[in-house]
Amino acid sequence: MRHDDAAATADGCFPRLDLPAYQCQVQPVLAKNCAMAGCHGTLDAQTRPFQVFARARQRNNEVIMYDRANAGCLQTGIVAININDVGTGTASCNAKARLSNNEWAINFDSARAWAIGTTTPDTSELLTQPLVGSSFAHAGIKLWNTGSADYAVVRRWLDGGTDVANCNNSTNN
Ligand code: HEM
C-alpha cells in the first residue's frame, strides 16, 4: 500500500499503516531508541510532536484500572492508578502496566503522521531525523544508517508492511 493522500483521506488524515505490525515490530524499536525522557518520551506534543509512550519510560497522564496480581506485584487486587504519576521512569511494579488503548492510539498516530505527504518511506523524518549523514541536525543524535536492522523494521512498516506471522505481541503491550 502506498501512503498517498487518497489513502490518508480514508483514515482521517493518517496513512493507513498496519497497527499489529506497529505494535509488534516498530514499538520495540522506538521504545528502545527514541522513548527516553527528554527525548520522545514526553507528554508535551507541542514541543516534541513525535511522542512515544513505553513501559518504564514515559506513560500517559491517565487513570487506568490496574490488576496488580497479574503483574506479579506484592499487593493484589485491581486498583485505579494514574499511570503517569506512578508508572513513568520507574521499573516498579506499576511500570509493568500494559500500554493503554490511549497510549497505543497516540503512539501509532504520532509515528504514522511522519508518513503523511511522503512518496517513499526514505523521505520520512521518522527515518531521516536520526539518520547518520542526513540534513537534519537532530540535536547531534544519529542512531542508525540505512543498513541498520532497526531502520529496516521502521522502513518496512512505513512502506505498508503488515504483521509477521506468529508475532508474539504479548510482550509489547
Ligand atoms: C530512532 C529514534 C528516534 C527517532 C525515530 C526520532 C525522530 C525524530 C523526529 C521525527 C523528530 C521531529 C519531530 C519532533 O521534534 O518531535 C525529532 C526531533 C528531535 N529529537 Fe528525535 N528521534 C529519535 C531519537 C531521539 C533521542 C534518543 C533524542 C534525545 C536524546 C531525540 C531528541 C530529539 C530532539 C531534541 C529533536 C528536536 C530537534 C530539532 O529541533 O532540530 N530524538 N526526532
Q: Gist?
A:
By secondary structure, the chain is of the alpha+beta class.
Describe the structure.
With 173 residues, the protein is α+β, with helices and mostly antiparallel strands. It has 6 helices and 3 strands, in the order αβαββαααα. It has 2 domains: 1-6 and 14-54 and 99-173, no CATH class; 56-97, no CATH class. It has a two-stranded antiparallel sheet. Helix 2 (19-33) packs antiparallel against helix 6. The protein is globular and about 50 Å long. Protoporphyrin IX containing FE is lined by residues 33-34, 36, 39-40, 48-50, 114, 125-126, 129-130, 137-139, 141, 143.
Gyration radius from CA atoms, angstroms: 17 Å
- SS summary, helix count: 6
Count of DSSP E strands?
Answer: 3
* Morphology: globular
- Tell me about the largest β-sheet: 2 strands, antiparallel
What oligomeric state is this?
single chain
Number of domains: 2
Relative helix content: 25-40%
Class by alpha and beta content: alpha+beta
Query: What is the averaged pLDDT score?
Result: 89
Task: Summarize the helices and strands and which ones pair or pack.
Elements: H1 5-9, E1 10-13, H2 19-33, E2 63-67, E3 78-82, H3 83-87, H4 101-112, H5 125-128, H6 149-158
Helix pairs in contact: 2-6
The chain binds protoporphyrin IX containing FE.
Keywords:
173 residues; alpha+beta; 2 domains; binds protoporphyrin IX containing FE
